[in-house]
Amino acid sequence: MPVLSASMMRAILLLHARLNRALQGSILYRIQRSWSVSDTVLCMTARPALWISVIMRKRRVKKELDNLQPYPVEILPAKLYMGNFKQACDRQILKDLKIKAQVNISEQPAALFAEDKLLHISVPDSPYADLFSSFPTICHFIDAQLNYGAVLVFSSLGISRSSTVAMAYLMHSSQLSLKEAWEYVRKCKTNMRPNRGFVKQLSDWETQIYGTAITDISEPNY
User: Fold this and answer.
1) Name one GO biological process term (predicted).
2) pTM of the model
């Protein structure tokens, strides 16, 4: 390895650390995580043109990864999807997933589908908001639309309201308890989190379907 001054070595170490932090969690980082500091030193001193190429390639791939739009999560294979408002407005996503109808559980309107293919339940993400009274309408709409293609349920962030509706539908269509529906949806989307008001409404929905509350919704489990 070439002999470097202390200041040059510190600069190399700092650059190496910054590049790895910038790419942490990306596909490229996982592929190239074995790239060592000694590799960096050799490349910078012996083949500077190659080092510049590596830096540019890493930056380009990071930019491409940052621009990637994640797709909605699949709740029922090729039938029911759950996502956020941005995904619901992306025509390429809708085409790729063959979405034929949408259930909008946000306060913001989205008009990419004909009126008979779009159900808009304008509800805020608040513990005091009422989704329970709309569960039957939502479930019947999804049941009807699944005969024609996939359905996307979405809310602003795809975390609270949309996951509440996804669980309500699974309890209705697949005879799942709230606990079973919760665990199922959480496996599909690990950061899903209905607010406490919606959790109570899901418990009421469970009671309406089965005649009794099966799931203990006490915190911190729900």
Assistant:
1) positive regulation of intrinsic apoptotic signaling pathway
2) 0.70
